[in-house]
Amino acid sequence: MARVFALIPAAGMGKRMGAGYNKQYLALDGMPIVAHTVRVFQEAACIDAIYLVSPEQEIPFCRSEVVERYGFTKVRAIVPGGAERQHSVHNGLRAIEGIAPDDLVLIHDGVRPFVTAAMLEASVAAAQASGAAIVAVPVKDTVKVVRDGVIAETPAREQLWLAQTPQAFRYGLIRAAHDEAAADGFLGTDDASLMERQGKPVQVVRGDYTNIKITTPEDMILAEAFLKEKK
């Protein structure tokens, strides 16, 4: 059986949040957002080990106030992040110890705390079968392609999905995709885009509209509402 490793980048600076410090440590119901996220992976039976990625100067804080404070025993290491999210993920992939090419990696945003164990299990199953899979949801609104302030195209809505995380891959495939992107100086929009760039198929797993990425103050209002609903 392939082992399953979680890689959770939490190295963003969170400038859009305007909180004065990094968004992953904002308190949500008295607990840092990233701690809510890690707890899902800690409690999921399908996850064998967790690697966190943090700004280098924040690693001691992350270790004491997240990993140790909440007893996240599956966390194997906290890895220094890079200038962009893609660089942070690449650092994390290179830091995973003892991983085999056919083992699986679930890459998940540290500020998506409403991921569920069911999403993790579905992602693992899909990546095990096909090599690469992402969680996504169909768009609700009509999307316009705009050039120079003018609508150029209206894509068929039934073909458009919003990418979320986790994004799950066989380690050998995603490591090769990241290595090639780094060598070419290419920055993708997400990890799946690096696989697409190589012509590799990526399966889509139906996610949930509550699986939001907390980026703005408005997202915090939504997150607090979701938490109240769960209680």
From TrEMBL:
Documented EC number(s): 2.7.7.60
Gene3D superfamilies recorded: Spore Coat Polysaccharide Biosynthesis Protein SpsA, Chain A (3.90.550.10)
Annotated metabolic or biological route of this protein: Isoprenoid biosynthesis; isopentenyl diphosphate biosynthesis via DXP pathway; isopentenyl diphosphate from 1-deoxy-D-xylulose 5-phosphate: step 2/6
Keywords from the named record: Isoprene biosynthesis, Nucleotidyltransferase, Transferase
Site positions per UniProt: Positions MEP for the nucleophilic attack: R157, K213
Pfam families attached to this UniProt entry: IspD (PF01128)
UniProt xrefs under SUPFAM superfamilies: Nucleotide-diphospho-sugar transferases (SSF53448)
Catalytic activity: 2-C-methyl-D-erythritol 4-phosphate + CTP + H(+) = 4-CDP-2-C-methyl-D-erythritol + diphosphate
Annotated GO biological process: isopentenyl diphosphate biosynthetic process, methylerythritol 4-phosphate pathway
Primary enzyme class: transferase
InterPro entries: IspD, IspD/TarI, IspD/TarI_cytidylyltransf_bact, ISPD_synthase_CS, Nucleotide-diphossugar_trans
Site label Transition state stabilizer, positions: R16, K23
MF GO annotations: 2-C-methyl-D-erythritol 4-phosphate cytidylyltransferase activity
Function field: Catalyzes the formation of 4-diphosphocytidyl-2-C-methyl-D-erythritol from CTP and 2-C-methyl-D-erythritol 4-phosphate (MEP).
Family according to the record: Belongs to the IspD/TarI cytidylyltransferase family. IspD subfamily.
Record-given protein name: 2-C-methyl-D-erythritol 4-phosphate cytidylyltransferase
Gene responsible for this protein: ispD
